[in-house]
């Protein structure tokens, strides 16, 4: 529990560091508790490769991939991953329609229906329905009863995802980062009330969401883009 957790946004619609590329989509690298995780892969394998290289992230060091949902702006980089890490495990919603595609490019799909505990600290949140034929999962890291919640597009509702993380895993939301899918003010109020530290709206969250959080809770908003890095020291978190 003494290792710091390192979170780096590899691909986003916007850039945090000017020397990086932006693409419509999302990919986040997480180094946590001796596990290196790629959460979503963006839409463009070239942008993923170039940004990872610029940030000194060795994609070959990744232990597994989590794909939040089937849309191409989250799965496009899988072609690159298949070349670098053939047969690596890729966690996908149980109802995902890309399992045949993953098999064809020599990746190993792991279907997620209910919440899966990968170790004492890392969980893949069970799938939630986000529309007709669309299901979504999320990644959760738990540290001393604090939850770091990584979301792709939050089609089921960002509030529903966070509530499921609390119900299934227990603990207090500490960081929520990813795409919020143009949420209503009611959903944003839920985040503001329940997230203890930072809310980082990326990708499809929308300008209105950023402005609403910045107005209502300026101390909680974290505005990012490609290159945003977050370091969390578990020793500094009180239980």
Explain what this protein looks like in three dimensions.
The chain is an alpha/beta fold. It has a single domain, classed as Ribonuclease Z/Hydroxyacylglutathione hydrolase-like (Metallo-beta-lactamase, Chain A, 4-Layer Sandwich). The protein has 7 helices and 13 strands. A 7-stranded mixed β-sheet has the order 6-5-4-3-2-1-13. Helix 6 crosses helix 7. The longest helix is centred in the C-terminal third of the chain and has 12 residues. The two termini are 13 Å apart. The model has no long low-confidence stretch (mean pLDDT 96).
Task: Summarize the SSE layout with pairings.
Elements (H helix, E strand, L loop, with lengths): L4 E7 L15 E6 L2 E5 L5 H10 L9 E3 L5 H4 L2 H7 L4 E5 L5 H6 L3 E5 L3 E2 L4 E10 L2 E10 L2 E6 L6 H12 L2 E8 L5 H10 L3 E5 L4 H10 L12 E4 L7
Parallel strand pairs: 3-4, 4-5, 5-6, 10-11, 11-12
Antiparallel strand pairs: 1-2, 1-13, 2-3, 7-8, 8-9, 9-10
């Amino acid at each position: 529990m003494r290792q710091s957790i390192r979170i780096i946004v590899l691909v986003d619609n916007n850039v945090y560091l000017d020397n990086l590329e932006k693409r419509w989509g999302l990919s986040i690298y997480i180094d946590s508790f001796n596990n290196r995780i790629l959460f979503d892969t963006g839409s463009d394998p070239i942008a993923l490769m170039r940004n990872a290289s610029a940030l000194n992230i060795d994609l070959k060091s990744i232990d597994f991939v989590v794909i939040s949902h089937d849309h191409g702006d989250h799965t496009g980089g899988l072609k690159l991953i298949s070349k670098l890490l053939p047969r690596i495990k890729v966690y996908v919603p149980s109802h995902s329609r890309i399992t045949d595609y993953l098999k064809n490019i020599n990746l190993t799909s792991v279907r997620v229906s209910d919440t899966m505990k990968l170790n004492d600290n890392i969980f893949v949140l069970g799938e939630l329905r986000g529309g007709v034929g669309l299901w979504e999962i999320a990644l959760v890291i738990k540290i001393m009863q604090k939850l770091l919640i990584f979301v792709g597009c939050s089609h089921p509702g960002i509030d529903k995802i966070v509530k499921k993380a609390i119900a299934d895993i227990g603990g207090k939301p500490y960081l929520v980062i990813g795409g919020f899918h143009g949420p209503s003010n009611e959903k944003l109020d839920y985040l503001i009330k329940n997230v203890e530290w930072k809310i980082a709206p990326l990708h499809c969250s929308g300008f209105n969401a950023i402005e609403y959080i910045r107005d209502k809770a300026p101390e909680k908003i974290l505005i990012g883009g490609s290159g945003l890095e977050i370091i969390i020291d578990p020793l500094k978190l009180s239980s």
